[in-house]
Amino acid sequence: MSELNRSSPSDLKVACSGCNLRELCLPFALSEADVERLDNIVSLRKNVARGQALFRHDAPFLGLYAVRTGFFKTSVPTGDGRDQVTGFQMAGEVLGLDGLGQERHACDAIALEDSQVCVIPYERMEDLSREFAGLQKQFLKIMSREIVRENSVMLLLGSMKADERVAAFLLNLTKRLQARGFSSSSVLLRMKREEIGSYLGLKLETISRAFSKLQEDGLIVVDQREIEIRDTAGLQRLVNSANC
Amino acid sequence: MSELNRSSPSDLKVACSGCNLRELCLPFALSEADVERLDNIVSLRKNVARGQALFRHDAPFLGLYAVRTGFFKTSVPTGDGRDQVTGFQMAGEVLGLDGLGQERHACDAIALEDSQVCVIPYERMEDLSREFAGLQKQFLKIMSREIVRENSVMLLLGSMKADERVAAFLLNLTKRLQARGFSSSSVLLRMKREEIGSYLGLKLETISRAFSKLQEDGLIVVDQREIEIRDTAGLQRLVNSANC
DNA sequence: CGAGGTGTTGAGATTTGTCAACCTACGTGG
DNA sequence: CCACGTAGGTTGACAAATCTCAACACCTCG
After folding, report:
1. Cβ contacts (< 8 Å) between A76 and chain B: which residues?
2. What confidence tens digit (pLDDT) does each residue in A45-87 have?
3. pLDDT tier at A1 (50, 70, 90 boundaries)?
4. pLDDT at residue A43, as a whole number
5. Does the distance separating the beta carbons of A76 and B151 come in below 8 Å?
6. Which of A45, A239, B148, B165 pairs as cysteine with B200 (C-beta 3.0–4.6 A)?
7. CA triplet A51, A52, A57: central angle to 5 degrees?
8. Is A71:A89 a contact under the CB 8 Å cutoff?
9. Residues 105-134 of A with CB under 8 A from B
10. Does the structure show a pLDDT above 50 at A153?
């Protein structure tokens, strides 16, 4: 009945050991042997259509998910029915870490395009320690990185101006896309202005104006959701100059 | 030579099993047997004087710390030498989770009063999986909770007005103090207005004005760093009404 | 008693939000 | 294939919130 059920849980056999995201995803820096152990834990894939939820807040925690293809946003409810976007996730990134603590999800995860995730079922995570110490530590590392990421978002939200936030947002996106082999000078945004605004703590009109401003200054070229980066160093200077 | 060295690493023998913070700290919800295993991992205490750093960003990650007595702040550098405060930690709370991922700390941890922490040395964490599956999962849970906490700070920074942020801050503090057996109607702030402002993404003058405003409205009474909560429900309404 | 750190308050500047109009792209149905 | 409706995006004018700068008050500590 839930939106979750409407997605198709295709029971494809997964193999981290043969995945082209190895270097970016769960297996990063793991030994060959450890990756094979991981294969036993990550056992199936799941498709999520654009607009659908992978999970919703308050839903029981069933496991972690690694994005295989596609693009997600996570958001927390504001109490009055609206949401604040807390992150955007692309291939190789992990969703659901918020749910481990209370065995219940703290945010919604919505696909911004047709996507596919690899599933790490909660009950299999019990096997982690039995499987190998290296694997268990891997999860601690992944969570630690998420904490560091959130620290940097707090920095952004707490101390940057609108233009600086947008510049930092674009640089972060292109850096992650570049690590995945995409162009670092051109981004196709998968989210709307309103979602960027929610993530950056700004209104959609302010995002729009910031894009226009950065374009006027020759740092980027905006064509709808297609952003061309003209001056990466200039954007970086803008971010660095924050709070001076 | 570092400030770290100037703190006195008193080699007291620690026993989680006999600690009065059991229910709030690392051992929460662990079995008697697991807590005894934890005793083998948490092996010493360390004093940190007011104003000193427990660790600094970029320093090698040596282990996790559980606050035993005292009060800390964590902050990340903004790039221009200044810092943004990312959290305040009191007895039973864990410091250093940010360092696991890169084996290097991402933030500074500074004592706001003379404090004592229990040390979980990094090399001992290797023993976690050998010791017991329950223990390893405990750390994942603690990290997950930190992620959820940071989510809620992002929500605060991204979508609340000054008064609402301050109200949320006070409610959060009193809730945590109450869980530790302190009065929920009176708080002695351990940090200055500037640090609250940094944490909440506001300037110190705005914090001062927000306190005055909440006092005018009869919700609190302010006397320097001593805050008396007069109307918890009123503060809660203010927080809930955010974004309406 | 004086100095320095911290906190409060006011006035004006700056930034962002709000509201409204308009534009563009896209999908649907005639 | 075109007309139309709708969602998303841009821009302007004004309002509201916060920041900035400055003056001053208070407290602590030597």
Report:
1. 151-152, 154-155
2. 999 999 999 999 999 999 999 999 999 999 999 977 789 999 9
3. very low
4. 78
5. yes
6. B165
7. 115
8. yes
9. 106-107, 125-126, 128-130, 132-133
10. yes
- How many angstroms separate the CA of residue A216 from the nearest CA in chain B? 26
Helix (H) or strand (E) holding A117: strand A115-121
Contacts of B99 in chain A (CB under 8 A): 144
Cβ B208 vs Cβ B196: under 8 Å: no
Q: 3-class secondary structure for B198-234?
A: HHHCCCHHHHHHHHHHHHHCCCEEEECCEEEECCHHH
The CATH T-level fold of domain A5-145 is: Jelly Rolls (2.60.120)
Q: What is the four-CA torsion angle of A204, A210, A213, A219, rounded to 10 degrees? A: -130
Q: What is the CATH number of domain A160-242?
A: 1.10.10.10
Report the chain B residue with the minimal C-alpha distance to residue A131. Answer: B129
Q: Measuring CA to CA, which residue among B22, B71, B74, B65 is closest to residue B46?
A: B65
Where, residue-wise, is CATH 2.60.120.10 in chain B?
Answer: 5-145
B202 strand D contact, CB < 7 Å:
yes
Kindly tell me if the per-residue pLDDT of A40 is higher than 90.
no
Q: Are B136 and A133 in contact (CB under 8 A)?
A: no
CB atoms B155 and A80 under 8 Å = no
The CA distance from A225 to the nearest CA of chain B, in Å, is 23
Give the residue among A226, A130, A98, A75 at the shortest CA–CA distance from B149.
A98
Cβ contacts of B133 on chain A, cutoff 8 Å: 126, 128-130
B205 phi, psi to nearest 5 deg: -65, -35
Torsion on CA atoms B148, B151, B157, B160, rounded to nearest 10: -80
What sign for the dihedral angle of Cα B210, B212, B217, B223? positive
DSSP-derived secondary structure letter, A88:
E
In eight-state DSSP terms, residue A145 is H
Q: Which two tokens stand for residue B229?
A: 């909560």
Q: Give the burial class of B149: count Cβ atoms within 10 A of its Cβ; 0-12 exposed, 13-18 middle, 19 or more buried.
A: middle
**Spatial separation of the C-alpha atoms in residues B79 and B120, rounded to whole Å:** 30
Asked if the model's pLDDT at residue A4 lies above 60, the reply is no
pLDDT in tens, A89-99: 999 999 999 99
Tally A–B CB contacts below 8 A: 167
